[in-house]
Amino acid sequence: MKKKYKNIYSFNTKILKKTVKTLKRGEILGLPTETVYGLGGNAYLRKAILKIFKLKKRPPENPLIIHYYNKKYLKNDVIINENFNKLYKKFCPGPITFILKKNKNSKIISLANANQNTVAIRFPSQKIIRTILKNLDFPLAMPSANISSRLSPISAFDVFDEFKKKISIINGGKSRIGIESTVIDLTNKPRILRPGIIGADAIKKLLKINLSKKKTQIKSPGLLKKHYSPGIPVIIGRKPKSLKHAYIIFGKSNDKRKNYFNLSKKANLKEAAANLYMTMRKIKKKGYEKIFVIKFPNYGPGVALNDRILKASK
Ligand code: TXA
Ligand code: MG
Fold this sequence. Notes:
- The chain has helices at 13-24, 46-56, 82-91, 127-134, 156-163, 200-207, 269-285, 301-312; strands spanning 8-10, 29-31, 38-42, 65-67, 78-79, 96-102, 118-122, 140-141, 168-171, 182-185, 191-194, 234-236, 245-249, 260-262, 290-293.
- It has eight helices and 15 strands.
- By secondary structure, the chain is an alpha/beta fold.
- The strands form two sheets. Strands 1, 2, 3, 4, 5, 6, 7, 8, 9, 10 and 11 form an eleven-stranded mixed sheet that branches. A four-stranded parallel sheet has the order 12-15-13-14, with helices on one face.
- The protein is globular and about 60 Å long.
- Magnesium ion binds next to loops.
């Protein structure tokens, strides 16, 4: 490891032991998942939750996702239902988050779920985070490891860029999926609050129902106006006219202009999703003043891609 990154650790048994102890005490760590890196803390400890909100500069009304190893680890934290069971069986562990009713005896600190009567839960599939969760006797509250409203990190070095030496970070390589999990509300008629790699069609097919299209009520992911911002203006559906502006494209193209960045030459939407945040960060670091980006085909992962660039453009 380069000297510059003294607080980025490779994972091994010794680090696992240290990680468990640190989290138990209520400290916060930068941790890998298959979607994006998270800021993990003990969901049963008030001091840990307070630290997460403070580090992220997150408004207290925006609830956190609670991460578990598997269904057995849920104990009595939430009330599960039939739709949950079906989705869990098919997609978990994996990039999907469920909103469920909170149980009265739940040990989750209410601040973590913004004092609501619901909780968001997720079972990440990335190997390192799964090993950690398996060894804990509490779940992890874990928002994406970025300052509120900015781009989510997909590598340990991205997390370092956000928080420098304020936290220790476990290096799990590049996040495979590259955008945040699909969030689905299961407290009523199922409704997608945040699109992700697991799309509405796959969910509809499995549950054999139509999803609710009702606009989300307060305290849902879509409501924060600015989100996923790379720190420079993002313009959708137009070409740049200046070399100081970058252009994010997608699909077959022989264009070799230096300010053109292709997310997937194979026109693969999953690959494009895995490259989106990384490319936006790279463009910002190279000193471009603006990002122009094409509109993605609006199906499958394209729905999630369009959602992220739209919010980044606000
Ligand atoms: O992929 C992911 O989900 C990543 C990794 C680290 O697991 N986590 C993540 O967390 O994206 P965060 O905090 O950046 O986004 C969670 C979203 C927020 O937009 C929040 O509003 C929503 O989930 N959320 C959390 N609890 C909720 C609840 N009880 N009701 C409605 N929305 C909720
Ligand atoms: Mg986030």
